[in-house]
Amino acid sequence: MVEVGEPLPPSNPDASLVRIYPAGVSGSLIPLSGNRSSIGRDAACDVELMDDFISREHAIISQQGGHFYLQDCGSLNGTFINDVRVKEIQRLVPGDAIRLGNHIFKFLSSDHIEAQYHEAVYEMMTLDGLTGAYNKRFFEDAIEREILRSQRHWRPLSLLLFDIDHFKAVNDRFGHLAGDECLKQLAMRVRGRIRGEDLFARFGGEEFALALSETTLKQAVQIARDLRRQVEQEPFPTSRGPVPLTISIGVGIANGQMPVSSKELIEAADDNLYRAKREGRNRVVFDAA
Beta strands 59-64 and 36-40: pairing type? Predict the structure, then answer.
């Protein structure tokens, strides 16, 4: 049996899983040895996961003819490959994301597992495993550079801080798995609205940050209002049915003309976010110029 978090196995295993989410465990490379590896909550499984949303024997990864296949074992909450529920035996491709309960793994299989592993570790260091947005640590470093660039070129930098209204009630009513699905889909909607150069991060829990370079306060407020409407107008489809959501957004601005620290910019946006909550939620709040 292999437990998440053990030291790296001998080099050149046929295939491995890298635990991407939840965060908190380093060196999570799990070799898939032999022709059959069971995954589940039971101690008899080859890969044991302590997760109440995972069945005792949840899924099996098998090797046939040099290829690897995943099969769900009739689990209650399902097994997903790249966010699509597995309904029959499905062949795995290197890089596939496998989700079971609250866990997400990346499947590695080739002569270059070591390189793939280090790439996955880099992703874990910079990206939030659930949503694919940058993580807070990366964001805090990057926003410092954005502020310096803003001041060097005398160009504005806007910051949006937003979170899902009453998200605890969503988890209580629909379950944590549906809540995670909402977080992922919210991140997808945001990425569909922003530019490639914008800095989008999961700031913690249900809170997100969006730094908009060379964006005036007026432009940032318009983007914030568009995002708020987009979230409110269309419920989020989940395995527990459609979930209606709203978000509250606080906007901060560094105009590029006056010195401002990253802490001051984040605090300004955060203050406005809490004003939005106090004033009834599902709204955008900013300081008038």
Answer: antiparallel
- Give dist(CA 216, CA 238) in Å, integer: 36
> How far apart (Å, rounded) are the C-alpha atoms in residues 125 and 158?
25
Q: How far is CA 20 from the centre of its chain?
A: 10
> Which residue, 127, 114, 104, 84, is CA-closest to 4?
104
Q: What is the DSSP string of 192-216?
A: TTS-TTSEEEEEETTEEEEEEET--
Q: Are 68 and 61 in contact (CB under 8 A)?
A: yes
Give the SS3 label for residue 1: coil
In the set 48, 181, 206, 207, the catalytic residue is 206
The two beta strands, 36-40 and 79-81, are unpaired
CA separation, residue 209 to residues 13, 252, 253, 273 (Å): 39, 11, 13, 11
Q: Are 174 and 225 in contact (CB under 8 A)?
A: no
Phi, psi (5° rounding) for residue 57? -120, 105
Q: Is residue 146 a contact partner of residue 256, using CB atoms and an 8 Å limit?
A: no
Residue 150 and residue 222: Cα distance in Å, rounded? 20
Q: What is the pLDDT of residues 148-196, one digit of tens each?
A: 889 888 999 999 999 999 999 999 999 999 999 999 999 999 998 888 8
Residue 152 backbone phi and psi in degrees, to 5: -65, -35
Q: In angstroms, rounded to a whole number, what is the distance separating the alpha carbons of residues 57 and 76?
A: 11
Task: Verify whether residue 206 is a known catalytic residue.
Answer: yes
H/E element, 149:
helix 136-153
* pLDDT one-digit tens code per residue, 102-161: 888 989 887 677 777 777 777 777 889 899 999 998 899 889 989 988 988 899 999 999
Provide the pLDDT for residue 111: 67
Give kind and range of the element (H or E) at residue 148.
helix 136-153
Given a contact cutoff of 8 angstroms between Cβ atoms, the answer to whether 262 and 143 are in contact is yes
